[in-house]
Amino acid sequence: MGTTTTKNDTEKTGAVTGDAAADTKPEERAAAPEDSTPDTTATEEDRQEELLTEDAPGTERAGLARGRGIAAGAGAVAGAALGLASLTGTWAGTVLAERQTVLGQIKLQTGKTQDQIAAVYTTPWHTTALVNGIFAVLALVVTGAVLLRRPQAAWTRAVAWGGFALAVLGLVIAGGMYLDLFASAPKLSPGGGS
What we know:
- By secondary structure, the chain is an all-alpha fold.
- It has a domain at about 70-180.
- About 70% of the residues lie in helices and about 0% in strands.
- The protein has helices at about 5-15, 20-25, 25-30, 45-55, 60-90, 90-110, 115-150, 155-180.
- The termini are far apart.
- It comes from Streptomyces ochraceiscleroticus.
- This is Integral membrane protein.
- Keywords: Membrane, Transmembrane, Transmembrane helix.
């Protein structure tokens, strides 16, 4: 039960047109790849780059999109690093806390203060909390700026949201440390002994 295809049949379907089509056999036409199908394998990054470069004129489009992507990625990573630093503490916080400890000891020895706990413990503790809180606020600002810019690569948004979450957690912990919510300052008994 073979079927034959004539030139009139192929012109009606629009599959093959012109005189060259009449010379080809039906088997050759079926085996030939279709060149008219659009390529739908564009990646997510290609689509996002097209969105970024849609408004840019001429040859500057690719460079402009790449620059925005790099800035957003760098901001996301920096924000995540600042958020992590707000949780773990920094060298600057340690140095400032040690400085406050030394100043408290000097005040005790010279008689300028009678509150030994505040001079040696509470003030350095609050200094550490303040420095960590500053890092948390910086992380919130940086990651917030990255998240407000649209469109972005998926990894940039993910890193920025991670940094934002770390910054919020760091800010909560720093606030709790500063307000002595997690541990109250030690107190001396009225007799000063055991």
